[in-house]
From TrEMBL:
The lineage of its organism: Eukaryota, Sar, Alveolata, Ciliophora, Intramacronucleata. Gene3D superfamilies: 1.10.287.70, Jelly Rolls (2.60.120.10). It comes from the Eukaryota. Residues 121-353 form the Ion transport domain. The chain crosses the membrane at residues 163-183, 241-262, 299-319, 331-352. Residues 627-671 form a coiled coil. Keywords: Coiled coil, Membrane, Transmembrane, Transmembrane helix. InterPro entries: cNMP-bd_dom_sf (IPR018490), Ion_trans_dom (IPR005821), K_chnl_volt-dep_EAG/ELK/ERG (IPR003938), RmlC-like_jellyroll (IPR014710). It is found in: Membrane. The keyword Disulfide bond does not apply. This is Cation channel family protein. The gene is Contig17413.g18523. It is a multi-pass membrane protein.
Length: 741
């Protein structure tokens, strides 16, 4: 069933697909152009070209010639053929422009002013008539394409019949008929109106935008594709504007010639005052007839009158006189209102289109967003102009400097790259100036060397920011406000500042006044200035604290920002080991490089201000003798003397008491000394008595020991029985004697 419906297994379908594929190979068209190619193939390719096409297809099928080389070869030939056609079209365009100028200038000038023999115009007109006559013969000898067979017809009889009966032969013959040579000038000038038939060939488009665009592309062919598209649109709109100007000039010129021809014809048949008698003859009193006035002067008067009438300006220096002139002038004014309304409408459309084409997709989306905000602003009221300008200024800088936008615009291509190449693109190409800045090394160096993965991940968070030295945009950070972004300052001068209230004391010091900056009626004292690359705000976003100082831009400061949410969600979650180290490093850097120097600078400045203020008050204090103060001082001296006498009496009393105390102390000391002597004597007596008693006790102890020893020996001898025992005892005693000794 699938084959019956012409599926992929249908032989006819396969053959058609193969033929379509071969056509794409030969002509180098993409599959998206397939339907357009097939639908227009019979109408755009002749039979001879079809035969050559089939020969090329057979050649590519029957040989081993590389199809890719065949495609490149045919594309090259196609480009060369296109270049030749472009040159031919440009030549044809030049020819068309020339013919248009000839038709406009020659035809209307001849009808209005005849054939004036100035600047060789009569010979020029004769030559033009001969060229138009030759054009008739050229049309009789030029092939034409048959609408039915789509083939070129070269038979002379068929060409002549086609041109005479179906073409513009009659109009061309009357357009070149020499009426001036077969009738007198009075009637011939009216017959010259027949030459207006040649204007049917006049092309309204005097300029072909596509042809000029091909020439102009040579100057910007190396730009990006989006820039080329914007430049193409700009050139097209400029060409349209030039075309409107040319069309206006042509219509004004044609109507000016007709106007002169009409008023000249009226003047010939009537003696009443007309436009010619009131203006042409009045402005040239020496001229006897209107023909005595130079042609270019008459032409300028007529064109000037028509231009002021078409534009409905009407200065009043030229105006219709007769009834017929007023009727025709009124019709011209009606046409002028319509004509200039159309021109202005097209001009406004061109401006709007030019503005819309120059906008990028981001700018269009931003405009839609601001229109959406308008709905919630007091019932559809537009946003304030200053706010809109600030928004556009911010986003214009963001779009121009957002380095990842171009890369991520084709995210599929970027995701398909290996990670090494992506790291190189982000680290060594897009943000090389950021990562190689030595003043940023402390932030990116999370170890012995910079981690490529860390640099790659953090590069996606860089957002361009710029601060301008204006009152509205100068604050990088404002004191006592929470910080949500840190900044890597790439270029620009900025400073730390603190708001002050006692400006009256500072303005007296010219050196201090130069360090004060006024912003929106507030005074800020500059504590420290910076002009080199650095990074700021990392301590605030790591610890979620408010800014303690005002960071103010002195010039245009260009930075890259990292948001607090990006660091917490994409960096600290992926690299949790870095959080503690980075927070500690940020705290140390903030204290050593910012907080301590700034606190010291603020303290020194405030002390200097207070000292200078006190000195100023002392210098400005008047030297006036005040009697009341002198009396008060004298009374104070008397009081002090009285108090001094009282203190003297008290001191004497204290001295007397002290002397009595010293006497008591001396008595106590003598008593102590006497007691000590008595105690020493008693101790000595006790010692001598103790020595005597001890010696007696020792002597008695020795006597007692001797008696006991003798009693023991006698008792021991008496108790022993037998000689053996005595002998053993004697031996033992002999053996023990040395020991006893």
């Amino acid at each position: 069933m699938y084959d019956a419906q012409g599926g992929i297994d249908d032989p006819d379908m396969k053959k058609a697909q193969e033929l379509r594929f071969q056509r794409r190979i030969v002509f180098g068209i993409t599959p998206s152009d397939d339907d357009r190619f097939d639908s227009n193939l019979g109408a755009t390719i002749s039979e001879g070209l079809k035969r050559k096409l089939m020969e090329v297809i057979d050649f590519s099928n029957n040989t081993k010639f590389n199809k890719r080389k065949m495609k490149d070869h045919i594309q090259q030939k196609s480009a060369q053929h296109m270049a030749k056609n472009t040159n031919a079209k440009m030549n044809q365009q030049k020819k068309t422009i020339t013919q248009n100028n000839i038709r406009i200038y020659n035809t209307h000038l001849s009808i209005a002013f005849g054939y004036p023999d100035i600047y060789g115009l009569r010979a020029f007109d004769v030559a033009i008539e001969i060229l138009f006559l030759l054009d008739i013969f050229r049309n009789l000898l030029t092939e034409y394409q048959d609408a039915q067979t789509v083939q070129m017809v070269s038979d002379f009889k068929k060409i002549a019949a086609q041109y005479m009966f179906k073409g513009a032969f009659i109009f061309d013959v009357f357009a070149v008929f020499p009426f001036i040579y077969v009738a007198d000038w009075k009637h011939a000038q009216d017959l010259l109106l027949i030459k207006m038939l040649r204007l049917y060939k006049l092309q309204v488009k005097f300029i072909e935008p596509d042809q000029i665009l091909k020439m102009m592309r040579f100057f910007y062919q190396n730009k990006d594709r989006e820039d080329q598209i914007q430049t193409d649109n700009f050139i097209k709109q400029v060409i349209k504007i030039i075309g409107l100007i040319i069309n206006t000039c042509v219509i004004t010129y044609v109507l000016g010639c007709f106007w002169y021809r009409m008023v000249d014809r009226i003047n010939l048949g009537d003696d009443e005052p007309t436009f010619i008698t009131n203006f042409y003859m009045a402005k040239n009193p020496t001229a006897k007839t209107v023909n005595d006035i130079p042609v270019h002067e008459r032409l300028v008067y007529s064109v000037y009158f028509i231009l002021t009438t078409l534009s409905t300006v009407g200065y009043g220096d030229f105006y219709p006189v007769s009834i017929l002139e007023k009727i025709v002038g009124s019709l011209i004014m009606f046409c002028g209102v319509t004509f200039f309304s159309i021109v202005m409408n097209e001009f406004i459309g061109i401006i709007l289109e030019l503005k819309g084409n120059n906008q990028t997709e981001d700018e269009k989306n931003l405009n839609k967003w601001m229109l959406l905000l308008r709905r919630f602003n007091n019932g559809g009221k537009a946003l304030d102009k200053g706010i809109r300008e600030d928004i556009m200024k911010h986003f214009n800088y963001f779009w121009d400097n957002n380095r990842t936008a171009t890369l991520l615009e084709k995210k599929d291509y970027f995701d398909a790259l290996p990670r090494d190449i992506k790291r190189i693109l982000m680290k060594d190409y897009l943000f090389e100036d950021v990562f190689t800045q030595h003043r940023f090394k402390d932030f990116f160096d999370n170890g012995e060397a910079m981690d490529p993965d860390f640099l790659y991940d953090i590069s996606f968070g860089f957002k361009p920011r710029q601060f301008w030295p204006t009152e509205e945009d100068c604050f990088i950070y404002e004191s006592f406000e929470y910080v949500t972004e840190m900044y890597f300052v790439m270029d620009g001068d900025w400073s730390f500042a603190k708001e002050i209230n006692n400006f009256s004391e500072i303005e007296k010091d010219p050196l201090m006044v130069n360090r004060v900056k006024k912003i929106k009626g507030r005074n800020f004292l500059i504590l420290k200035e910076h002009s080199t690359a650095t990074y700021i705000g990392e301590y605030y976003i790591f610890t979620s604290q408010m800014s303690r100082y005002n960071y103010i831009a002195n010039t245009n400061v260009q930075t890259f920002s990292l948001t607090q949410s990006f660091i917490n969600e994409h960096i600290f979650e992926k690299y949790p080991q870095l959080k503690t180290e980075m927070v500690a490093e940020a705290h140390n850097r903030y204290n050593t490089k910012f907080q301590r120097p700034l606190n010291k600078a603020w303290k020194d400045l405030t002390e200097k201000i207070s000292i200078e203020a006190e000195q100023e008050r002392q210098r400005n204090r008047p030297a006036v003798i005040d009697l009341t103060k002198a009396q008060e001082k004298k009374q104070q001296v008397a009081n002090l003397n009285q108090q001094l006498e009282m203190n003297k009496v008290k001191l004497e009393n204290l001295n007397e008491k002290a002397s009595q105390m010293f006497k008591h102390i001396e008595d106590i000391q003598q008593l102590i000394f006497s007691k000590c002597d008595e105690f020493d004597e008693k101790v000595k007596e006790a010692e001598s008595q103790f020595g005597k008693e001890l010696s007696i006790a020792i002597i008695e102890n020795k006597k007692l020991k001797k008696e006991l020893r003798e009693n023991f020996k006698s008792n021991l001898k008496g108790n022993l029985l037998g000689g053996g025992v005595n002998n053993r005892f004697n031996k033992k005693s002999k053996q023990n004697e040395p020991v006893q000794k």
